[in-house]
User: Fold this.
Amino acid sequence: MKINISRHQIYILLLSVFLFLFVLIFSFSLLIPEGKNYRIKRVELKKAQQEHDKYKNFHDETLDTLKNLQSKNRTIITAFDRPFSPKRFEKQYKSHFSSLRITKINRVADEEGFSVYEVNTTSHIASPTNFYDFLDALNKGDWIIGVNFPIKFIRDSEMIRSSFTMKVYENNRNKKSSASGSSAK
Amino acid sequence: MKYSYIKPRKKTPFTPDVQLIVTFFSMTLIMLFSTYAFLLFKNYTFDQDRQELINNKIDLQESIDKMDQKIAYIKQQKSLAEKVFTQNIVLKDSMANLFDLVPQRITLSRAELLNNGLILYGITPSKDVYNFMLLAPLRSIFQKTYTSFYPQENGWLRFVSTNYINEDENEELESEN
Assistant:
């Protein structure tokens, strides 16, 4: 039996085989590895997205906490930021005393990372109640001030002359630490 | 001069069979190349997106760290402020209690409040009045109490009362609190 294949059919067969081989080689050498790569990268991206979302949520929670703290402690934060002014202090607390004088402002050793200034005060009061009112008013004032020992009360005819030291607490400016700025992204 | 009455058929290499095969393989190759191009493009965008997410994550981490520092600082400020405010209130209450101790019959001319003690200067009609009405409550507060009396022309007595809290006990009390 004689198989009669024309030259034209041989060309077609060769062309088909060549193209088929090309498709096979291309698929296995480039397409399939790239497909695997695609799958791996898609999973990696998903993981990165999940991690990013986790960070974003935590960031938002932290920002809320910070804002909340800032709004609740606004007075304290501004009080620490505000530099002490003897004139303003005298003006603010004059009503509690018959006379009030701030004499000396010395910087003393830092406490808990905050700058501390010691202020000597002499004043005249009509009764100890005035001093109690002053102590109450200090806690609502523009600065963080603690009245320090020794406190002296000396009778001066109908008045009481008092002298005491106060400690004024401020942010340590060398540390450049401030809690008033917002860090919203 | 013509040898035939029919026109010769044009011979072309693109026979219908070849055309079919070429069409089939062209479509296959187009699909393969477009898939490959799609995969390359997607892998590139995945890389870009992933890098962007990583950079964002680093920024978020930095921002969280800064906010944590601020939160810690505000808490520190709050704690110190509350400590100072409490000290002022305690001082006010202690002073009020101290002045309440002094009876009507004794007049104070000077009072010095120290960190660990109290010095009172004043006038008393007699030693007994002082001992019963002022010394007794002072002794209940202070561990060491010393008093000196100086007679006056009108028969009354000037006194200087020095009172101290035992430092060790004071420290113990503070540490317990």
